[in-house]
Amino acid sequence: MILRHIIREVRARWVSVLLLGIMIALSSFVYTSVDLGIGAVERETDAYFETTNQEDFAISVTPLLSESDLDHLDTSCLYPVFTLNGLYQEDQSCFNNILNGRIDTMEDIADITLEARLYKDVSRSDVERSHDIRVMKNSETINKTYLENGRLPESSDEIGLLKNYMVRNGLSIGDTIKISESEYAITGEILVPDYTLPALTHPFLFTTDNQSIAVMTDDAFHALNAPVRLEIAGVFNEETTDLESAFAEADHDFYMGLTLTENNFRSGIIYTEIEGSKGTALFISVLIAFIGIVVVGLIFKKLIERSRRPFGILRSLGMTERELFVPFLVSVLVFSVLFLGIGYYIGYLSGPWIRDFFLDFYLLPRGDIIVSYEGVLIAVFVPLFVLMAMSAIILKRLLSKEPLDLIHMKVESDGRFTFKTVQRLIRKLNYFTRMQIAMLLRNFVKVTVFMIAIFSALIISFMSIGMFDIFTGTVDDYYESIDVRHIGYLETPRDIDTPQEKVIETQGTINGSQAFLIGLDPKSELHPLTNRDGEDIRDDLHEGIVISRSFSLLASIHAGDAVTIRLAGTSYETTVSGVADIYPGEHVFISREVLAQTFFDDSDYFNAVYSSEPLDEEAFMEVFTVQSLIDSMDEVHDLIMNVLYVVMATGLVLGMVIVYLLSVLTVEDNYYNIALFKVLGYTNREINKIVIGGYDKLTVLIFILSIPATMGIYRALTWFIATEYQMVMPFTFEWLNVLVIGAMYGIIYVLASLKAKRKIHAVSLQAALKIYQH
Amino acid sequence: MIEFKSVTKTYQEGKVATTALKSVDLTIEANTFLMVLGPSGSGKSTMLNLMGALDKPTEGQISVDGEPISQFDEKQLTHFRRRRLGFVFQEYNLLQSLSAAENVEVTARISENPLAVDEVLEKVGLLSHKDKFPYELSGGEQQRLSIARALVKQPKILFCDEPTGSLDEKTAKDVLGVLKKLNEEDGVTIVLITHNQSLAKIANRIIRLNSGEIADDTSNTPEPVEAIHF
Asked: CB-based contact (8 Å) between A423 and chain B?
């Protein structure tokens, strides 16, 4: 009979009960899916890094020949070149001597082992769109190639590619691709541990739609007609030391900087990603579980309270406490297990999706989904225990009352101390505000949950909408602000016709921070420089250097600062004359003439040209087309948007469920008060104002508070990413987003309020008062 | 003046129809202290709900001071209650989260010409308790507070539904004394419904209801409250 009563109660309130179930299921689902999905990635990743001996750090060295390199330069190697690549193209053994000389010098600094990591960037010539292939020279000890399927290339016409790239481009082992005029047969699917994210041409460009890592035989690698680039991979032999300080102290002229793998975007962000994702998932599921459990508690309490009269009657008829307690608790058990089970099962089904989603971005081996006892315990049994314990306490407290106390409804008068204290503080406020505060205080726990839930949902929404353009917007903004559409790179300068602008692009350091130096003509027509106010600051190049805002943030260098530029052992002191409002990379602009004269002893020197028109690819060592980067960025943008839509939808669903449940609960909690106000002659409008009005104001207040909170989180994130990864992600707060989020939540809130108001209108008058007593 | 003309009230619950009042005709003059007596289920509360503009009759007409309240829609009924009527309930029905003065203010705020809150509290002897919350007051004090809440709007008619039902004899007499004073000194029409026959002595008109019909309607020479024995 009790069970029948419970079933009727559930039927009568099926929307609330269903939403409640969704909350319970959601907490289990979020944790399970991420735990299983990330767990599969994490397990394989550890073993993968172990097998392939992933680098502990990477050292950037200058691509220019430095003074100290002369010690390792044989007299037979005196070619008219400035760069390591120039030397490589002329004579590989001379190049190797320099490289080995640099490595030997650096290995003396600390107990480390180093290995040069050479690579060449080429493009496929058998596809219409530009497909960038970064061919890595095989390593011997550090960053060894990992074979997922097939075999490694054994002859000069073979190639190994990333599985992700092959899948996205319909390629299989045995197919052939064309690079320049040569055809290569694909022999296997490979991974390299120094690229867990395929950030090849740009840190934010990490899709494998049109870019891949590749390996070939050493002969095939050397035969590729492309400039060689390099970094030095390193591992600690015994114990880790403060290498950065040691290298800075050694002050070798070819050394440009060192990045520990854990701080390296291309190789180490996976560590943060795994920890971050697990932490975020745990946080979200705990948050949902907390909110869910409190809401469940409130609704269970209501359901049980609604049964107090039948309980009282049954108790007075002689039914024992236990006979009432057990069926109720069993119902809670069945309900909770059902929804936690559904949540777990959906989470289990989503685990592979989460794993595969990660592996769409990250270049890592694919692990199996393995169910762990720990996972089940956290996702199912912990919330189940909390729900059962909470229900048992509520039931026990209720059933311990005398039968007559159960039959007669009581008007709750909790929070007496709070009323008294607050009353003194709000005495001077207007009547309706005081009434609204009194109503909110009556339901202190519910109001607190409401605030936490809405605040969290708003933050989730703001964060996701704020990230809509974060990966691509800055890059697009930069390239849209300039008229450079094609960049041609040269190894040896030669005469170039106008309107192509001669520039120098090279790596250097400024006050010890790595910088991408761009030698630009102050009269450049293709590359304007503007400050935050939109003013043209190209003339500032006459006074000193102009740094990008991102470099300013990363290196903590500001306008007016005196700085030292170092490039291949030569230093130049100058001042920062301006900060350009651009974000991608560590761009630093300097007058080309000054850069050329200071570091290359030739005021006419240049190694690249900027053009608004297509360039003759034959005339250059390499041609970069801005549009291809923008197109690829659009693909990243689409991918990111899909993720953000999911996150945003989660925030909205969370917000909707909470607003709905709590607005309905609010009316039920105030059933007595509403009836009384009606009898006294209050209009529905006035009653709405008193009962719901407090929530209106509270919601607006939370919304307003969420704005500075979001700004704070943006700043913290920008700081964290800049500190950890030397990358600036300029989260900018858009007031348009406030309008959009405000409108969305406004609609949800208005709908829930309408529901609540309809319920208020339906409250009967004196009849409602009669069922309560003091 | 309250007028009932052939008023019938039927409640429909599912397939069961219950007639709580059957074609009742009744006129209550101003300044009357009317006692409505009857056993449970006799229709007392229904009558009060209809007079008090809390409900509408199934048939017949009700007017209060010439206003045809049986034809009013919900909005008009609300407005009418707000302007003209006061209510006192058996269970006090106070707002627990508000102080005594604020409970009175709840009514004062929606009244056209309210009395000062302190003045009303003084009248029911609760001025010194104005900052106390309902849970800090005794049963009698809580009921006097609910009377004060009704009085602050200076109602022409005060409806009391078993106002002494939860009180002991002494406290009940205090409360009845307040009501009697209001009737005699301020000219407020009092309609008090109760199943307690002994209260009838203090009224100047007594109606006995039985099964939804007026079984007896008599005038009475009111006695002082002290004459009542519970």
From this structure: yes
